[in-house]
Amino acid sequence: MKLQMKLKALLLTPLLLLIGLNAEVMTGTTKGHYSKPGAPIDMAYVTNSVDKNETADINITLTTTVRRGTMHVLLTLDKNLTEVSPVEKEITFEITPEQKEYNLNLKLSSLEDGLYYVRLLTKIDKGVGSKLRAFAVPVTIGKGRVRKKGVVMMKAMNGENITVSKAIETIKVLKKEDE
Amino acid sequence: MFHKLSIFTLFLISTFSLFAVDISGIIEYERVNPRHSNASSRLDFSNISNKPAKEVLVEAIDSDGAVLSSTFTNTQGFYKFRNLDSNIDIKIRVSAKMQKKDAWFVKVTDNSNGDSLYVIEGRLENSGFNNSIRNLRASSRLKNSPPFAILDSIHQAMKKVHEADKNVEFSLLNISWSINNIQTGTYYDGTENIVLQGDQQGDSDEYDGHIIIHEWGHFFETKLSRADNIGGRHGNNDSLDIRVAFGEGFGNALSAIVTDDPIYFDTIGGTGWNMNIETAHHETPGWFSEASVHRIFYDLYDKDRDGEDNLALGFKPLYQVLTNGQKNTPAFTSLFSFIHELKKENPSVSSKIDEIVSRENIATIEDAYGSNRVSNLREDDLPLYANLTLDKTLTNICTTNYYGLHNKLSDHKYIRFTINENKTYPIQVKQSNGNNADPEFKIFKTSPFEKYSTQESEKVGREEVSIALTKGEYLLDVYNSRSMTKACFNIRIGDKSQIPILNENSDDVENSDNSKSTTQNVGFALPENKLFLTLIFIVILLGPLFFIRKEIKI
After folding, report:
1. A30-52 residue pLDDT tens
2. Which has fewest Cβ within 10 Å: A134, B83, B157, B321?
3. Chain A residue nearest residue B133, CA to CA
4. Contact at 8 Å (CB) between A172 and B22?
5. What's the DSSP call for residue B364?
6. DSSP letter assigned to residue B420
7. Rounded to an integer, what distance in angstroms lies between the CA atom of residue B446 and that of residue B526?
């Protein structure tokens, strides 16, 4: 028994070490997506998932092909996210040909497990008809459960997965004279 | 005897009829309408319309979940079940699915919940002994109307195409939408799927009909026409690769054509934006502009006579070019190939087509390759297509990132060549202005048009392959995987005479934009040598066995 425990511990340890080499870091980018029209801005991010009351360090990079203009960014945080350091909600960057990346850093935490989001609404002001582009950066606290609201999944008789919700319904029984 | 049998049969039938009922009704969904104010748009939740759910699947379900009968609504949302059993519990289920034999199969599923099909259900109620009417409505407040709103936009697009071609058949299409689609983006994936944003606190597209039809336009191009569009981020002011400009401009124009509404809009939370497909300010017009493409396309279609637009072709002639000439063009699909084919098919209005095109600062289009462009661009931007002769080196073909990366003008260069003999040919692309680019290329055979080969190794300064080619016309798409202000290449197909290779072992990487890495290094930086890496993993995995070798008697 003791040997089995020792064997398991010693075999699991290096596997955990290998997993740990990649730490709990989430990255993402919108580059390369076949996306809808909007402001010519791409976004990449690096965040780390943390436990309750720990600080999540979120680094966001915005890039654009535009050479001149003003980039406006409006930030909103999910309501359970707390700012560890103050977060400016309205940010402006002056775009120049030399600078292609515009960085934001946020430090956030939460008292509750969950998957939360930092939302960005961006536009580039060139004086004529500015389009918008929205992004969302995930922030995982603890187990980061995704809460599905009012959704029931079932299997139909033919085996197909269905998501069922209630319709607004009116029923009228027809008397013979109505038909 | 026969008389008695007839009476008995009639009695039996009437008895069954006595115990059968009809259930019918109207299926609707609530559509939240947009409110436009100058260049802004938003969803107006005080302006909600009840719309029919057209040609969707409706089922009568018993208390065990078995399907008693199924049908589809008509275009007014009406359905009817005849001769259902009386005095049993039945509920009506409506699925976000449109299915018509030899026509279409479209469904909306929740990609965050097992790709499950969205359905709404009424109450389980006794069918009684009388016919009844059960009307069902999907609600915007309950968040179950979006799948039907999405289907309605798709239905509108398919109907428009069907008006131009009664025999058209659409292949399977799945639309993935969920309120949990918060960072998915909205896009067509190139096969059978469209993904739509559903973030209810941010960007959601379920009621943005123009966006849905724009994405459906990519599906249409892929399945019924031809799309050489390489995708990526794009905007009205971008100078785009000509394939991207056409594909995206077409999608924008199609949304206005299908809805007969030139106001393209995107609502985002409590805000949003819009653009007028027809009249928006002409920023950077040209054959590389998706905005120019959508204005031209819409002007070719619409009835409004404005300025140089003296044409109202309607959709059918445009559809016929998309599904024939454009589909089979030997050039990459672009505004050039489309207009060239349109003029061939409609010679009597060729000059009027030229007038519409000229309004976008585009000289008369004479062929599918955009030849004879009057250049107001940078010197490296033209010509779009270079001609290569076998066994001769084509020099100084340059890509630049001046307009941006990946899918912008001059990120790719196109080369035409002809093969007259079936055999194996060496193809070499070598950098001529240094040794720090990472050239790649794709080979396309043009008749029938197909991608023949992709060469994307990590070799610095050159890319080459020996490949069997059959007789015919080909296109080579050359590009640089590294971000560089300018990378120039010499290209040779055939006799493998040496193209000079400069400083082959250099690791010098020019990053003239001084751009920083977009991600931080976290944790260990592992060595790149694969043998060394393998040895490390073996030590980590087997090392612990060393410590317990006595117990396990190694």
Report:
1. 554 567 888 888 899 999 889 99
2. B83
3. A172
4. no
5. P
6. -
7. 44
CATH for the stretch B383-493: 2.60.120.380
B90 in Cβ contact with B61 (< 8 Å): yes
What's the topology of domain B226-374? Answer: Neutral Protease; domain 2 (1.10.390)
Q: What is the DSSP string of B288-305?
A: T-HHHHHHHHHHHH-S--
Determine, for residues B130 and A175 on separate chains, whether the beta-carbon distance falls below 8 Å: yes
For the segment A76-82, the average pLDDT, to the nearest whole number, is 93
Q: Where, residue-wise, is CATH 1.10.390 in chain B?
A: 226-374
Task: Answer whether A8 touches B (CB < 8 Å).
Answer: no
Enumerate the domain spans of chain A: 24-157
Residue B121, beta-bridge partner list: A166, B93
Instruction: Mutate one of B37, B43, B116, B514 to test the A interface: name it (highest A CB count within 10 A).
Output: B116
Phi, psi of B222 (to 5 degrees): -65, -40
Cis check for the bond before A86: say yes or no (omega within 30 of 0). Answer: no
CA distance B284 to B295: 13
In chain B, CATH 2.60.120.380 covers 383-493
CA distance A163 to B33: 25
CA angle B476, B482, B484 (to 5 degrees): 100
Task: Using the structure block, give the residue that is written with the tokens 């389980």.
Answer: B124
Q: How far apart are the first and last CA of chain A?
A: 80
Global pTM value? 0.86
**Reported ipTM exceeds the 0.90 cut:** no
Which pairing describes strands B263-268 and B97-100: parallel, antiparallel, or unpaired?
unpaired
Q: Which amino acid is at B300?
A: L
What distance in Å separates the CA atoms of residue B451 and residue B442, rounded to the nearest whole number? 7
Per CATH, the number for A24-157 is 2.60.40.10
CA distance to B77, B127, B451, per residue, from B468 (Å): 57, 70, 14
User: Which of A100, A95, A99, A118 lies closest to A108, judged by CA?
Assistant: A118
B-contacting residues of A 60-99, CB under 8 Å?
61, 63, 65-66, 76, 78, 98
Give CA–CA dist B78/B136, Å, rounded.
10
On the 0-12 / 13-18 / 19+ scale of CB atoms within 10 A, B267 is buried
Selection from A151, A173, A155, A168 nearest residue B123 by Cα: A168
DSSP assignment of B315-363, as one string? SHHHHHHHHTTTTT-SSPSSHHHHHHHHHHH-GGGHHHHHHHHHTTT-P
Task: List the single residue in A18, A48, A135 with the smallest CB-CB distance to B540.
Answer: A18
B385-387 and B412-419 strand pairing: parallel
